[in-house]
Amino acid sequence: MIEAAVATNGGFETIEDVEQQIDDGLYQFWPAQNSAVVTSINQHRRVKALTVVHGGGDLAELLDRVEPWLCRYAKMIGCSHITGMGRRGWDRECKKRGYEFAHVTMMKELT
Predict the structure, then answer these.
(1) pLDDT for res 71
(2) Nearest CA to 33 among 65, 9, 3?
(3) Secondary structure (3-state) at 18
(4) Rounded alpha-carbon distances, angstroms, from residue 5 to 17, 54, 65
(5) Those residues with Cβ within 8 angstroms of residue 11's Cβ, 6 or more apart along the chain or in another chain
(6) For residue 110, what pLDDT band results from cuts at 50, 70 and 90?
(7) 3-class secondary structure, 85
(8) Which DSSP symbol is given to 25?
(9) Which of 25, 47, 67, 105 is most buried as measured by Cβ atoms within 10 A of its Cβ?
(10) Residues 75-85: pLDDT tens digits?
(11) Which of 72, 73, 71, 76 is nearest to 94 (CA)?
(12) Torsion of CA 83, 61, 37, 102, to 10 degrees
């Protein structure tokens, strides 16, 4: 599931890169029965945030089961925000759960 999510990232990471980041403790892996998420903890100057970097599998499970775990974990480690990166299709479902669509990340390869 994570491998499929990584395939949509425009070549920024491979599944091997993600696995190494998990092994190094820079990413966290959250498996569920029919879905999985990879997160990172980001300490900004004024805000500590848990960021969903990759996610895949059953959407209902991700949003109804996994997302509450992530929110509890984020609070437990002192995060004031949870953020996510992903395709625009997440916007509709996430708005129902109190998320705001903050910005779009676009990319252009410079040659």
Answers:
(1) 94
(2) 65
(3) helix
(4) 13, 6, 19
(5) none
(6) low
(7) coil
(8) T
(9) 67
(10) 999 999 998 87
(11) 71
(12) -20
Environment class of 59 (CB within 10 Å of its CB; exposed 0-12, middle 13-18, buried 19+) = middle
Token look-up 């980041």 returns: 21
Separation of alpha carbons 61 and 56, rounded Å? 10
Structure tokens at 35: 């879905």
Residue entry with tokens 């805000």: 47
**Residue at token pair 């997160």:** 39
Cβ contacts of 67 within 8 Å, gap of 6 or more: 97
The answer to whether 55 touches 35, Cβ cutoff 8 Å, is yes
At 94, list the tokens: 């996430």
3-class DSSP state for residue 39? strand
- In the numeric block, the tokens 């945030």 are attached to 49
Q: Where are the alpha helices (DSSP H) in the chain?
A: 2-6, 15-23, 59-61, 67-76, 90-95
